[in-house]
Amino acid sequence: MYKKNIFLDGDLLKFLGMQEIRPVFRLLKDMKSLFEDPSMDEDDEVLYAMYRNVVLPQHKPLFDSMNLRHDITVLPVKFVCREYVKTFGHFHPGGFSEVYQVLEGKCHFLLQKDGDFVIISASEGDIVVFPGDYGHVATNPYGKPLVMANIVSGTFSSDYSLYEKMKGAAYYDTTGGLFKNTNYASVTEPRITEPNGASLGPDIYDAFVQNPERFAFLSNPSQNKFRVL
């Protein structure tokens, strides 16, 4: 689908041969307290754009039948003081997993569970399965727009409360490296792991359409065999 029906045009997506999908924008004022230095005053600045339920019309019944959603998120090249632009960060109540794929650019996925903190560097084409008990944030530290797709269950609402309470993830991803968020009393040193979802590739949208049962674990947490190593 990407670069066939959907293209990056500046910092937004352009749709060809399918209905245009309006993005939902995250503004600085929505996330100001989540950054290492929230002193910037341009509250209406757009940090990133989210496109929900991005599917071709002929595939919508298939996604709906499994109660799954395909989204695309675009993070531009942007900084909040010295920190790279990032997604809000959330957990999945009920332990539902989520599959992400980098469509364009590179990113860091920052995962955390209790005191465990994991960083995954992902490049174009890489697929990562987030276990349902890990919260996650994506950052764009690589100097070009980042486009990511995800497939996730529509049966729950994401829980943002820990990230709001703790003012971000356990570490901030900055131009000077990772810096600990001192609001966390106990957390491990960041450990690096590799993308773990290659078996679902090479393209998660096409793979789902061709064999949706491979993604059934997204609707049933007990079936998930993917782990953060």
How would you sum up this structure, described in words?
The protein is mainly beta and 229 residues long. The chain has one domain: Sandwich (Jelly Rolls), CATH 2.60.120.10. Helix content is 10%, strand content 35%. It has four helices and 16 strands. It has helices at residues 28-31, 60-65, 161-166, 204-210, and strands spanning 6-9, 12-15, 24-27, 46-51, 68-75, 79-80, 83-84, 98-104, 106-113, 116-123, 127-130, 135-139, 146-153, 171-174, 177-180, 191-193. The strands form five sheets. Strands 3-4-5-13-8-11 form a six-stranded antiparallel sheet. The longest helix is centred in the C-terminal third of the chain and has 7 residues, at 204-210. It starts with 5 loop residues before the first strand and ends in a 19-residue tail after the last helix. The relative contact order is 0.19. The model has no long low-confidence stretch (mean pLDDT 95).
